[in-house]
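Structure in, sequence out. Go:
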């Protein structure tokens, strides 16, 4: 499912907080079916960047190019609705609703499909994420690893072409970490484009096609 042409390119990303430049002409490409790691010190701006890419945080400037889309390069503002449809940001502590695991999944499905949800699709992602036995449990009572897997199940239901993950395995034990990474590998193999902010590379290197290192506002790319 890999392709040489990126599906989405960002150039000239600038962001300052209180006159301090966090992103300074940063640029990156995202490819279908590929996974890139986003590395950088604490405070380098990784979460800021991911939120800009997902259309959640307004940059001072950024140009976005959706390849294969008729319109030429667009500003962040203009492309925001399309970014919100295409790119899904997964927070380190997933945001879950009150109610059972299955409710959280059904709601995710209906949010994008006008109220109707397909029980079969929900059952499929429950089993994919290994949460069958917890289907009726309150989502907010799940362990950190289970919550992360539920967030991934929800992302899979939503079929977002691009997933941005903000430290998805921090605070997880080894086994949960491996399960989460295996789910990420399976999404990548289905053609999802992924960018994963992480500190500890263990396990991620194996599934990554390349790395971006963020320092002093710029992104430098290297092969995995
Ligand atoms: N809303 C804000 N207002 C002012 N400064 C902010 C704001 N959000 C982030 N910052 C600052 O921008 C810098 C980058 O923050 P960011 O959270 O993006 O870093 P990070 O690379 O994700 O760090 P970590 O590895 O600790 O998660 C930090 O110095 C942070 O304090
Ligand atoms: Mg962060």
């Amino acid at each position: 499912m890999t392709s040489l042409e990126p599906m989405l390119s960002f150039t000239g990303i600038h962001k300052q907080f209180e006159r301090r430049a966090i992103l300074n002409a940063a640029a990156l490409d995202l490819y279908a079916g590929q996974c890139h790691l986003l590395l950088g010190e604490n405070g380098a701006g990784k979460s800021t960047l991911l939120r800009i890419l997902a259309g959640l945080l307004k940059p001072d400037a950024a140009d976005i190019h959706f390849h294969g889309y008729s319109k030429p390069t667009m500003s962040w503002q203009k492309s925001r609705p399309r970014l919100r449809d295409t790119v899904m940001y997964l927070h380190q502590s997933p945001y879950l609703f009150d109610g059972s695991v299955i409710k959280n999944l059904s709601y995710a499905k209906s949010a994008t499909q006008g109220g109707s949800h397909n029980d079969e699709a929900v059952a499929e992602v429950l089993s994919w994420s290994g949460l069958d036995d917890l289907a009726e449990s309150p989502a907010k009572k799940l362990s950190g690893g289970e919550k992360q897997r539920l967030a991934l199940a929800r992302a899979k239901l939503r079929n977002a072409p691009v997933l941005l993950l903000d430290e998805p395995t921090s605070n997880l034990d080894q086994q949960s970490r491996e399960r989460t990474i295996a789910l990420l590998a399976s999404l990548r193999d289905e053609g999802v484009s992924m960018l994963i902010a992480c500190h500890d590379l263990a396990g991620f290197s194996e599934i990554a096609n390349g790395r971006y290192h963020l320092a002093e506002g710029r992104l430098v790319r290297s092969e995995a």
